[in-house]
Specification:
Layout (H helix, E strand, L loop, with lengths): L1 E4 L7 H9 L5 E4 L17 E4 L7 H9 L4 E4 L9 H6 L3 E3 L6 H16 L2 H9 L17 E5 L3 H13 L2 E5 L5 H5 L3 E2 L2 H7 L2 E4 L13 H6 L5 E4 L8 H9 L5 E4 L21 H6 L5 E3 L8 H20 L6 E3 L6
Parallel strand pairs: 1-2, 1-3, 3-4, 4-5, 6-7, 6-9, 7-8, 9-10, 10-11, 11-12
Antiparallel strand pairs: 5-13
Helix pairs in contact: 1-12, 4-6
Length: 336
């Protein structure tokens, strides 16, 4: 069987092809375009498709896939907020994701963003390219002895916490369930409001769910310290981007590092350098000197991508063998 993979990056393609080739009986056709209503007809005749987090799998797209014969969607990510699981189940489709990959890839990148904005790395690099070696405007702060607030203390949040502990920071956490490993490192679990009010660095590591949409809204942003650092390497919808722009225009925050953006679909992973981007909020965000925006690359290490691809291959093989793993999202597990 041949699998059709949408939204495949150039670095990812040879790894994906080799992984399926190693199975001997299955091939993969890699496309750099993302799955959406316009591209869904391409999948006609393919029983299995693989998708990335910026593909659109709402009801109309899933209906088009089913009409064309697709029965399996193997998503190459942990997040699945782009998939209408209720429609998929109604259509009798199997949907699987990657429930685990290296948490260090995202945690380390979140810290890269934090230090980049704290120590003005982008501004300094741009200056030295012009042989401007002044230090004016480049003063940062020690992280040692300051307070890190981690919203979401699962595997990635725990990895971020361990790095913060290595810096010698005080640790505040917020989550529905306390992580014993984080508590052992000295983390104190507090309310979201207290965490935001007391933290010098706030990093987001929670999934995007209806109840976490705009978790960091205008009120939350106003609760934070004026000189705080805010990092989001999880999902763009966790932050109200317009509210963030308003706070930045008021001169608040030492720095903001964003690897995700709530309206990134149709922008991130694509070359828009020769086009007019009509997203005024994003256009304003990238102009602030204390903001660094990257294109959803936190997960993008050879280690994490290798694990994602291996899990995707396993998901396809499990589907063909009639096996069910923890990666399956639809059909939903039976209630007991």
């Amino acid at each position: 069987m041949e699998i059709l993979a949408f939204g495949v990056q150039a670095d990812e393609k040879p790894l994906l092809e080799e992984a399926f080739r190693a199975e001997g009986h299955h091939g993969v056709r890699c496309l750099d375009v993302f799955l959406n209503q316009d591209t869904a007809p391409i999948a006609a005749g393919y029983e299995a498709v693989s998708t990335s987090v910026n593909c659109e799998l709402g009801g109309p797209v899933l209906q088009t896939l089913t009409t064309g014969g697709t029965q399996l969607v193997a998503q190459r990510s942990t997040g699945f907020n782009n998939i209408d699981l209720q429609v998929a189940e109604r259509l009798g489709m199997t949907v699987a994701r990657v429930s685990y990959y290296s948490p260090y890839s995202v945690a380390e990148f979140a810290w890269t963003l934090a230090m980049a904005v704290n120590r003005r790395i982008v501004r300094a690099s741009n200056r030295t390219r012009d042989f401007d070696f002044r230090l004016d405007g480049l003063m940062g702060r020690d992280m040692h002895g300051r307070t890190a607030g981690i919203l979401g203390t699962g595997k990635i949040g725990e990895a971020f916490t361990r790095i913060a502990h290595g810096f010698g920071m005080d640790l505040l956490g917020w989550d529905a369930v306390e992580n014993p490993a984080c508590v052992e490192l000295g983390m104190r679990y507090v309310s979201k409001e207290r965490l935001l009010a007391e933290s010098d660095l706030v990093s987001l590591h929670v999934p995007l769910l209806p109840e976490t949409q705009h978790l960091i809204d205008a009120a939350a942003l106003r609760t934070m310290k004026d000189d705080a650092v805010l990092v989001n390497s999880s999902r763009g919808g966790l932050i109200d981007s317009r509210a963030l722009v308003a706070e930045l225009r008021a001169g608040r925050f030492t720095g903001v590092g964003l690897d995700v953006y709530e309206a990134e679909a149709g922008l991130f992973f694509l070359d828009k350098s020769l086009e007019v981007v009509d997203d005024d909020t994003l256009a304003r965000l990238v102009t602030f000197p204390n903001v660094v925006v990257t294109s959803h690359q936190a997960y993008y290490t050879v280690d994490a991508v290798g694990q994602i691809i291996a899990a995707t291959v396993d998901n396809v093989l499990d589907y063909l063998a009639g096996r069910r793993s923890e990666n399956v999202l639809a059909p939903a597990p039976a209630r007991t």
